[in-house]
Each structure stands twice: as structure tokens, then as C-alpha cells.
Amino acid sequence: MTAPTRIALYDTTLRDGTQGAGIALSADDKLRIAERLDEFGIDYIEGGWPGSNPKDMEFFERARHRAWRHARITAFGSTRRAGIPPEQDENLRLLLAAQTPVAAVFGKSWDLHVREALRTTLDENLRMIEESVRFIRAHGIDVVYDAEHFFDGWKANPEYALETLRAARRGGAGVVVLCDTNGGRLPFEIRAGVASARRVVDGPLGIHAHNDGDVGVANTLIAVESGAVHVQGTVNGIGERCGNANLISIIPNLQLKMGYRCVPDGSLSRLGELARYVSELANMAPNEYQPFVGRNAFAHKGGVHVSAVMAHPPTYEHIPPEAVGNQRRVVVSDLSGRASVLYKAQEMGVDLGRDRPEVREILQELKRLEHEGYQFEGAEASFELLMRRILRQHRPSFTLKGLRVMVEKREAGECAAEATIRVAVDGREEHTAAEGNGPVHALDRALRKALERFYPEIGRVRLVDYKVRVLNADAATAARVRVLIQSTDGTRTWGTVGVSENVVEASWQALADSLEYVLLERAGVPR
Hints:
With 527 residues, the chain is of the alpha/beta class. 38% of the residues lie in helices and 20% in strands. The chain folds into 3 domains: 8-281, Alpha-Beta Barrel (TIM Barrel), CATH 3.20.20.70; 299-372, no CATH class; 399-518, Double Stranded RNA Binding Domain (2-Layer Sandwich), CATH 3.30.160.270. Helix 9 links the parallel strand 7 and strand 8 (230-233). The two termini are 48 Å apart.
């Protein structure tokens, strides 16, 4: 059996990715990401542009003292300037100073850029490409040549664009990468451009796609199908403007669906972990709808879908979620059927047989509450409590006797809130108060203060997210609101929900459910 074709992966998260709006990585962040990419099995890690900022130079300095198990650290820079010998060009000298085993050198493929951006002749540009690559190669550094704007240049002047590729190969470039720098070309144009380049380049070709037309991944896959064996992109598709081709989608598509070899088999199951790790260090909220690794990538909501997936997962899943480090989710809503309720019950460890009459009761209550504005997709703890209450498997851990919240606007312009609360636990009452920077904050603090006397484990629980959504905006200040709360005890995170015309009441419902959920364990329910 013939071994699958090996596709080299070139990650530019640390350089091209950081050019995205709102993306900033420290030198420490870049090193940590590079180490994770190396462990994952990425072949090339582009660390930055030497000389463009002190942070990139620090990265290369520190990277020299690390033992890289798989990846080759790569520095990025441009060809020499027009009219300057390579040995006198500051950019090329800084590329050498980075002391990386590989350098990525980009040059112009589009005659428009040669004339308008470089302000030089077409012949001089060809010399700039060939001489720059040869100069770097003469110092024992492998060169990846990035043919910037290749596809735009090929459409405008195909003969010249192809001649720039020949110049790079004459200079000794190991890989010639065709770049859709503006990100506006479509797959059929990429196919034609790669095919044309293959006829004149006697070495390996690569692809570097941007996502301005929302086809960065598709363009990359079609380039590989057309003969490219080197793929550039970023984790989660971050990058300038609309981003780069997303390696998190490219890798499983190539390896699981197209039969190419990209990373070790064990790496694919850590794909989701890698995506989340980079999001965390880039201070970005993970995209819950991201293909393959998003929290909702394998989420099923419709009753027909859930029933089919429970019987045979491939009916509504294109790959097993575990293959890419994800997991199947069934979300409950007013679209749910009996199968959804049974799946969630099994997932939560709730004893619920298909023929029990409570299944219909749970389903009816779920639909009634969602009609009122509740949403249990992000509040699965509230849904578990709902099921257990109907099944009489839950007895409230505390009872509210009364609460009052006051907000005071002071002369200096400051606002302060105070909440007083009375709760009862097994016939014993606690009456306490707390201040906060708003009514919900004060209520949260007062409730915890009242209950910690009875349940010390509540001290570990904290709020990590609080969202309010107006459900009927046309009612103005009398509108109903939905409050979604995310809580954690340091090891688990769970969501709860409340709905009311009064934001404090809706918040109370969600807060109370949050603490009732964590106290299920005390009541003998395994968590």
C-alpha cells in the first residue's frame, strides 16, 4: 500500500496572526505557543520579523536556547531593497542575525507592486529575488520563498509572475509558496494558478491563503489537491483583516478526509486543546461555532437529529468528535423531543427510562418555560435541577424568606448597592446583609454570606460570567429579561438561567439555581 503524501505545515500565528486587529502576544506568549506547536507536530514555526520590534528579536534570542523536537523555527523578511547589494541590506542582515535554520523571504510577483510600491523595474525585481535568496542560502540557511500577491500578479501578467518564481528557484529556494495575499481569489482561480506554477517550477510548491473571501481553507485544500505540498496558515485563522487560512480546519480536512499525512496520529485528538490554548494566550473568547473544535461543532438540538445520532452518530456527524478532541453535546430547547431529554438524563446521571410518564412532563415543562423566555442551551445546571424536581430527586437546600435590594446614588456621583436577605435551612434562619458595586453583586454576596454558615463549600464558588438579554424590547423598561450566569468551583463550570420582568428577580433565580446545583453533591447526587 502506498504511503500517503506528506504535507508540510507552516504556522505563522506568531507573525501573520499577530497582525490581526486586537491580537497582541508577548515574547513569553510566543514561546509558549511555539512549544505547544512543536509538541503538536508543526513543521515550521514562523516567529516574527527580525528588526521590526524588540519583542521578535527577544523571541529569536530565547528560541535559540530551546531544544525543538520537531519544528524548525523560521524568521521572516523581505528581499533586498532596489539598488542595494544583499550584503549591505539591513533587512537581510537581520534575518541572518536571528540565527534560525530557516528564513522566509517574500518578494513581489505582481508587476503593479513592482512599479507602484517598489518604484523599480521588472528586471531589477527579478534580481532582487534571486540575489536575496542566494545570499541567505550562502550562509547555510534554508529559504522558503513567499511569492507575495502571486495569484493577483498571475491574473494581471502571467508571464512575469511565473518568471519571479523561476528567479527564486535559481537563487536556491527550497520551497516556493504561492500567496493569495489579498485573500480575494476563488478556488477555481487557485487551481489554475497552481497548475501554471507547477509547469515552470521544478521543486515543491506551497500555498499561503488569506480569508477575505471566506474561502481561505477551501483555497488551501484545492491548492494541495492541485499539487502544493507545503501549507501555511494560523491557529484559529487569526490574522490581518479577515484572517489567514485556519490550520485548525485545514489539518483534519487534509488528514481525515483527503488522505494526506500532516501530523502524528496522536496529535489530532489534541486539536481542540491547541485551539483553546492559543485563544487563551491571545485573550480571545473561543469561537463556539468553529468547525471541528468549537463547543457547538457537534451540538444537536432538534429532536429528530438527536434521535438519529443516539442510534447512529454518522447520521448527523461528519467525523467522530473525539477524533479532534471534541465531544458530542445535546442541547435542550423547545425544539427538543423525547430523545433529547433521555440523552441529557443519561449524560447527567439521572435515572430516567424511556417509558416513564415523567419524560412527557419534563418535555412539557421545558417547552412552557422556553415559551416564557427561558433558554437552557447555556444553562444545563438549571435543566438538571428541573428534571430532578419533577422526578422528586431534589429537595431545596435552602428557602428564601425575603430579600431587599437598595441602590443609593451619592452626592459625589458614586453608586452603591446593599442587599439584605433572610433564608432558612432545615428550620434555622439566617438574616444578613452585604454591599456590592451593583444590585446583583450585592445580592450574590448576601446570599453566599447567609449560606456559608450552613454550607462551607459555597465559599469555593464564584461567578465567572453574567449576561442579561432583553426579550421584548418593545415593552421598554417593563420588558422581560433573561439572565444567564456561569459559575465555577475551580474544577467545574456550570450555567443557570432566570427570567422575569425584574432583573433582580431573574438574577435571584439564576443565583439560587447555581448554588442549589453545587449542593447536589451534599444531597448524595454524584457530580
